[in-house]
Amino acid sequence: MCSIDCGLPPTLTNGILTLVEASNTTYGALAEVNCTPGYEHNKLIISCTDAGEWEAADCAPHGLFNVLYLKSTELG
């Protein structure tokens, strides 16, 4: 049986993704999201999925995620 490997985490604009276990990029592996000062993450940790891809993560200007959340709750 083949193991699912996501490869190295993708490049993150305004941040960096760091493997929790330095050489583990297989299904279930974790990567920590660290954003450049002045930016905040939408997720603290992402994982390698069973589709062989890393979950998506973003670093946005501080406060933007709160604004987007409030707008989505207003829309229902």
Written description of the protein model:
The protein has 76 residues and is of the alpha+beta class. It has a single domain, classed as Complement Module, domain 1 (Ribbon). Helices cover 16% and strands 26% of the residues. It has one helix and five strands; from the N terminus they run βββββα. A three-stranded antiparallel sheet has the order 1-2-4, with no helix packed on it. The longest helix is centred in the C-terminal third of the chain and has 12 residues. The radius of gyration is 14 Å and the shape is elongated. The mean pLDDT is 87.
Describe the secondary-structure layout.
Elements: E1 15-19, E2 30-35, E3 39-41, E4 45-47, E5 59-61, H1 64-75
Antiparallel strand pairs: 1-2, 2-4, 3-5
Assembly of the depicted chains: single chain
Classify the beta-strand content into a percent band: 25-35%
Query: Which spans of ≥5 residues are poorly predicted at pLDDT below 50?
Result: none
The helix/strand class is: alpha+beta
Task: Quickly name the level 1 CATH class.
Answer: Mainly Beta
What is the CATH topology assignment?
Complement Module, domain 1
How would you concisely characterize the structure shown here?
This protein is α+β, with helices and mostly antiparallel strands and 76 residues long.
